[in-house]
Give the backbone structure.
Amino acid sequence: MIAKEDLKAEAKCLGFWLCGITGTESPSHLDQYAAWINAGHHADMTYMASPRAISFRADPQKLLPGCQSIIVLAAPYPAPNEDISAEMGQIAAYARSTDYHNVLPPRLEALADWIARHAGRDVNWRGFTDTAPILEKELAQRAGLGWIGKNTCLVHPTLGSYFVLAELFTDLALEPDSPFAADRCGSCHRCIDACPTGCIQPNRTIDASRCLSYLTIENKDEIPAELRSQLGSHIFGCDVCQTVCPWNRKPAIPSEQTLFPPLEDIQTTKLTSELQLDDPAFRDRFRHTPVARAKRRGYLRNVAVSLGNLAQDNSIPALIACLLQDPEPLVRAHAAWALGCFSAPQAQTALQNALGSETLPAVLNEIQQALHNSDSNPQKSGLP
């Protein structure tokens, strides 16, 4: 039997500040998960509703036949940088560094090798970093890493919620940890009140179709018009429900001690310059970061909406160029919406000109609606 203290010490040496062990019992949240799917709160993430995915979530042993123990790990990332100006846009804190999908797997393998050496035999294992159908927050709570907060994040009493989870499934029998039984959210509802779109449900689930993280990352199509103003200056993900959480008031881990030090060039360019990124430039800049997941068309869509919300006249020329020249209809459509947020004659003239050159009905509809909006709405003053 491997001593848990030694295992956890090795995990911490590898950058996993939290480590706990649980069994392979069927998760107790399955009914809640099914209700969430049935309510359509998974939005267009249809892969989450497939019978195969639900089957794997119900029985973790299907991911590793013979699995006896699940080691749940947490690696912290730096808290959001509140000094970044709105003109740079807001990128979720976890995405301002190298993609955890690239960072964690080698460390999971190193931990598995350590376990095999100390077990004195070959060990069957599989490691996951948000890459398999697992109810990982329940597993983490069962392994004693924290409780599931009202904002649906796993919260630890000293580390807060700024960390990513990973799991190591193994056929080795290990002593399980006690579940984290306490619910320390109490009567606090700051996350619910602060959510820009009201997507946090009373039962600690998220209506993904309204969540800014979903809308700016997983959503591959247009952002619903009624939610665009709530986007603010968020261009990839959202940290609002975490930044207002009292348990994140004092980040416990200095950024230089995490596996994810912020990359200096992620948020050093104004949003107007981001609209000039072509495909090669986008891939070169973001290839090793989570931002690449949105792809250029999704990222520039988000940037255009943010510039409309900021409503600073110096962004009009960049939006006009985007409307008239960008090869992606999705980007042109959202640039049109953004220009409709301005009352400046330059913006209205560009929209009128685009009516004569645009050929796609979806973009034309956005242009027409933008002209209506610019006629009927006063100039916005910009975000605080």
Summary: Residues 1-264 form one domain. The mean pLDDT is 94. The radius of gyration is 23 Å. Strands lie at 18-22, 69-76, 90-91, 125-128, 147-148, 154-155, 163-170, 234-236.
